[in-house]
Amino acid sequence: MTPRLSVLPVALVLLVVLALGGFAAPGPGAAAPVVPTGDAPAAAAPAGTQQLTLVRFGSPQAVSDAGVFIARAWGYFRELGLDVETVYFQSAPDTIPALAAGELEVAGGTFSIALLNAAERGVGLKIVADKGTSRPGFEFSQLAVRRDLLESGEVRELADLRGRRLAVASTRSGAEALLAHILARGGVSIDEVDLAVLGYPETVVALGNRAIDGGILIEPSLSAAVARGVAATWEQGRSSAAYGGAYQAGVLILSGRFAAQPDLARRFLLGYLRGVRVYNDAFVKGEGRAEVVRVLTEQTVVRDPAVYDRMQMAGLDPDGRLARQSLQMELDYFRQRGYYTGALTLDDILDTSFAEYAAQQLGPYR
Predict the structure, then answer these.
(1) How are beta strands 141-146 and 251-254 bridged, if at all?
(2) Within 10 A of 80 (CB to CB), how many other CB atoms are there?
(3) What is the pLDDT of residue 90?
(4) pTM, whole model, 2 decimals?
(5) Measured distance CA(215)–CA(19) in Å, rounded
(6) CATH classification of 141-237, choosing from 3.90.1300.10, 3.30.70.120, 3.40.190.10, 2.102.10.10?
């Protein structure tokens, strides 16, 4: 592994975030594969029974990476001839250079300036599927406000945030764009608030000592702030409303080299969506939830099973469909602010064909 892929100790990831051979994929006319029920992880195939293709997946151990973690634990990737190895990164944007260099095949990421700039250099990065939407019932990314401000009535509506100090994890980013779109619903410009750049755990601390008035938070920091009584969620701070019903917080990105191997890419997406459907079984239907939570506590930064009872889980589309309107709004924002001046359109960086193929093979999710 080259020095670029520095594998972070889990302890460090915990501190910072507490913020894809010999198998042939089924042809278009083939019958859909038999999908295990998801009641328990499948046993690993005996060593030496098949030659597996290594697929390196870059991840900050986010809960929204659940589709990959579940598919690996349930043996779905191995059934498809893939050996998926997780390479840990401090944050999703850090995976972009490694993807561009071909040192990763897949990563969970965000729609960002770094992604646009890398794609513009012709390295072939492609956004291929959903990896986390904030939508009704799954509002895992929100603008939270200090509880005392809401309870006292000092803040009743978005217009009351004008002139106040609000935190984002980074500027010139999706976090900034999210805040800007939420504020715009109340007639407030991003230039009319005092931006503080703080990581998600630091935002919780700053809310507690009243150094800020609110901030963009994602799970598990969002529920932690609410549980400690330092912040409250409110309807006007929901990200889904600002993006027409679904905010595309996370995306699945393929390296150019991997995207150019459609057989491998289709297989990865097939395994991934099987994992995503088990996730939906657990958190939408309540089926097999305890076992899914067990896997997530082993593979993500959220190690306490009790936290899953109070968290707003990430929405994961069972067909991997992207909220295109949300992505277009972010691209438009980056252009309006002068952060991105290139000529790329969404069609240049999206390739939904692999997920569409996988969803077709699996059939409708019910």
Answers:
(1) unpaired
(2) 26
(3) 86
(4) 0.85
(5) 12
(6) 3.40.190.10
